[in-house]
Amino acid sequence: MTSVVFTYPLELVRVRMAFYSQLSDRSTEKSRPSFLRAMRVIYNEGATSSAARIATTHMFDRFPILKFYRGFTVTMVGMIPYAGTAFLTWDFLRARFFPVVDEHSKRPHPTANLAIGAISGAISQTVSYPFEVVRRRMQVGGLTKPDGWLRWGETVRAVYANGGWRGFYVGLGIGYLKIIPMTAISFAVWQGGKSLLGV
Description:
The protein is built from nine helices and no strands. By secondary structure, it is mainly α. It folds into two domains: 1-68, no CATH class; 70-199, Mitochondrial carrier domain (Mitochondrial carrier fold), CATH 1.50.40.10. The two termini are 25 Å apart.
């Protein structure tokens, strides 16, 4: 959670750059979105004139850095089911197929660690994916509501209105292509490192 606090602005800029690429593909303008351009656009969203800024007490005027944290609360809450489910599944499957009775118990092969990690990643991604959909909506919310936050309630209602409960799982297949190998490799390397260090 601490690492997310420091890296979240980069995640938001990445999502915006992907969104800008989609917009430029639809328009006649083919300029590639740059990191600095995306940061400037986000920073200047909802900017008021200097005269109006003196009178306003809006949080974005006083703390422009908050514009880089749209959808942050959803990310933090979504980490709980994602990480919790991943480790719960990992520990359950390891205990089920490779129980540790004593120091001579059979250790799983790296291929088994990859398989268990892949299953853990698939289940955790399925459980937490609705949070990711809501987060993405809130991250691009600066384009539709530049002077304020998109709130949880209105974002969830918008997703449901557009696609029903299936709307919360749009793009899940692509998510599997990323998360399953990433989680499998992470857990396998973690266990390999422990074996190498004799931990």
